[in-house]
Amino acid sequence: MDNTIRVKKHFVLKNKKALEPSLFGVFIEDNSVYCGIHLSDIKLPNQCVFLGVLRETQVISATDNPSIFAADYILAIATHPMMVPALKVTLKKIHSVYYSLNSCLLEARPTDSKSVNSDYSDLSSTFNSTYY
């Protein structure tokens, strides 16, 4: 999820043209490369700065250098509009998820002994399909 908020304060360049900075809140997924590391360990593009982390209803300042967890929002600002795409790409990095038809992760999953009937007497009523 990506939220863009416009900040009212303008930055003025040498040519006197005003730029609006863009504030981003990037949701951290379970497979984010940033889960478990500190905010200061992330290298941001030029003209981008961290503001902090939003965790549930609490805003943690970047000066506190919080660890990042899944379901956090990383709050950052791009002071130049041309850096917005680079900031988005940087903050949305995830680990690759691989899928293979040759392996089934359900087979390796431990089963709950309470949910499996040990005598298998009602197996035919539990399954409606034939498995080979």
Task: Describe what is shown at a glance.
With 132 residues, the chain is α+β, with helices and mostly antiparallel strands. The chain has helices spanning 84-91, 105-108, 123-126; strands at residues 2-6, 11-12, 18-19, 22-27, 48-55, 58-61, 73-78.
Computed over alpha carbons, the radius of gyration is 23 Å
Neighbour order of strands in the largest sheet: 1-4-7-5-6
Largest sheet: 5 strands, antiparallel
Mean pLDDT: 76
- Percent of residues in helices comes to 10-25%
Globular, elongated, flat, extended or rod-shaped: what is the shape?
Answer: globular
By secondary-structure content and strand pairing, the structural class works out as: alpha+beta
| DSSP helical segment count | 3
String of helices and strands: EEEEEEEHHH
Low-confidence stretches: 4-13, 120-132
Report the count of strand segments.
7
Tell me what portion of residues adopts beta-strand conformation. Answer: 25-35%
Classify the oligomer. Answer: single chain
Spatial gap, N to C terminus: 42 Å
Structure description:
By secondary structure, the protein is an alpha+beta fold. The chain is built from three helices and seven strands. Helices cover 12% and strands 25% of the residues. The longest helix is centred in the middle third of the chain and has 8 residues, at 84-91. The two termini are 42 Å apart. The relative contact order is 0.19. Residues 4-13 and 120-132 have low confidence and may be disordered.
